[in-house]
Batch of 2 targets.
Target 1
Amino acid sequence: MPEPVPGPRPVTPVGIAAALLERVEAGLADVAGVPDDVRADLARARAIAGGLEPYLEASTSPESPALAALTERTRAEDWSGRSGGVRLEQEMLSGHVEGALLQLLVRTSRARRVLEVGMFTGYSALAMAEALPEGGEVVACELDAAVAALAAECFAASPAGGRIRVEVGPALDTLRRLADAGEVFDLVFVDADKTGYAAYVDLLLDTGLLAEDGLLALDNTLLQGEPWAGGPGGPDGEEQASANGRAVADLNAALAADPRVQQVLVPLRDGVTLARRV
Ligand SMILES: C[S@@+](CC[C@H](N)C(=O)[O-])C[C@H]1O[C@@H](n2cnc3c(N)ncnc32)[C@H](O)[C@@H]1O
């Protein structure tokens, strides 16, 4: 019998908090002397945190069959077997609820040209492509050629797949090239290497790549809670944030004081910052 493919591990602040509360609850199960009201509070905190994301899923319009198939394909892939380049894992996929948010942003902003930085297997690119009007285009940047090829196979199976143009290579190079070519985008979704975000944002705002009044969406700006709670423990047991956590904390602080944008950090999934170019 083949090994069952493990499901995604928690990668959002609330998912991580729920898993920790579950662990504490299990650890206290056989401990004598814990007051009943403490056990009841713990159980309620675990239920609130653990139930939130399934509730959001259930309260969101269903995804298309092509997006569901892409998710299945991503889950079934053996990511541990890949070598070289960026470490890829199924948890990178943005998924149903965030995809639905991006689709609403595309539709309500009436975007026709969308840029994605960090495509992975293509969930968010395809979600946004489905929301575009006739003649609209998503340009999706991805560093890893193999994962880009997998995404292209999924796009080919979707009616909206033809609206996606994939650019393989380091995103900063691609962005410079697109800017030099005079390309302009109404909406840009950044979801690649977290330490690169500040440079992407500067390039998008310093060139004409992001349209006047264009919308910028930055993923993982809560970075699993690290910007305010630190990391899960360093070598000396210190609560150290990772390089990604520090980069996101710096970016959030810089953006909050940046007169080029008006922004809000939406605590959906691992955090999505929405910023309008002003
Ligand atoms: C979190 S995943 C993107 C998830 C995707 N947006 C989705 O919704 O499923 C990040 C992706 O960015 C890519 N990436 C990392 N560094 C990059 C770079 N410098 N240029 C382009 N892509 C990069 C990784 O290979 C990975 O596929």
Target 2
Amino acid sequence: MQSSSEAWLIQNAEIDGRRGDLRVRGGLIHSIGLDFEPAHDERTLDARGGALIRGLNDHHTHLLALSAALNSVRCGPPEVTNEKQLSDALHRAAQDSPAHQWLRGVGYHESVAGDLNRSRLDQLGPRRPIRIQHRSGARWILNSEALQQIAHSKSAQQNTPLEKDPAGRPTGRLDRADSWLRKQVPPVPPDLDRVSALLTQYGITGCSDATPDNGPATVALFERARKRGIWQPNLRLMGRKNWSISDRSEFSQGAWKILLDENQLPDHATLIDEIRSTHALGRGLAFHCVTRAELVFAASVLEAAGCTPLDRIEHASIAPPDCVEWLARLPLTVVTQPNFIHERGDAYLESVEDRDQPWLYRCRGFLEAGVRLAGSTDAPFGDPNPWLAMQSAIDRRTHRGGKLGPEEAISPEEALAMFSSSLEAPGHHPGPLRSGESANLCLLTQKWALARDEMDHRQVAAVWTRGRRVDHAD
Ligand SMILES: [Zn+2]
């Protein structure tokens, strides 16, 4: 299905600030110049002065979870903010789906109905097996029907990670046990076609998937989807420690992803040895750090093991000045999610200590200290639209219009650069478009001087991935 190459002449575009034409051949940018004559085998597109930029790269997403989320009930802000709305959303989803089918909720936050458990969920939801994911991604809450179905499965009997109350009854809460839960519930095949189309619509031509349990099976799934022509974006997969991607794969292998939890930090010395052996294989580490303590722990083990440019800190949600200075001395990249300023900023303004608020999801502070900074959405835990993330990095506005760390604001050009660096070298400024590079391109409807004032995905006019036009507007 995949036509290996297309020949395009994009005329009258704005390329790095100047009017020009760009020719695509064999999957690459062939040449950039002025007033090219169309060749007989070329398709032409008049850009009408619109900016032609690199396709965007989302440096931290969870694609299979995004697919599942697109078929899930939203259970948290901004769509759902109270118990009544949660109950309505669950009952509506039950009406719209076959009887007995599991309902899957996502994005739950305590501001909706407190610290949710099985009995509260039984009262709020329909009589269906229901599982709801906390928006942190770390917790699931199951209702009684769901627990009953799980109790029937053999694998659930042994080593159950289900939280129990003092009487030994499951509370319905389940922490950091995604792969266990997946084995208990009926499988839902991923809808990668839909995910690919959604990302393309945003001008995304590449993603790094940051799911910790990625391994050969995930690679095989995406390779099959690529062969069938339903998966377009370039892809780098972080994941488990011990596996390697085949040299023949079209995808690349990213870092070993480690989820830190400040209440259960791993043994320092063992981890340092493991980091060294991972580095020896030419692979980096990616540490999930959302608290100060986690950030300090990650910086200290990386420094002790010998940090490399392949190493990354995911989120760095709270980064006080002493931590930023420390990170700046290491060759790593921080991968941030400015969309959380918009999506979660109101909750942060209420719940995060005053002294930490200026250090939330920083941008300017990292750039000024010389820390390499890459942009991402953490979809589906954040909105998958990178334009929303870029706009949040620029205006630092919360959903309700508050301001979170306004001195951390960056320019539209800096925001775009965070999403333009390559999957292999996130946070490295990619420089102007060059002939010879892979043709991952995004054409906007207007010139950059106008586009920068409204960072909105609706100005994406056309998208090419490895030289093929992949948006369906054509
Ligand atoms: Zn993530």
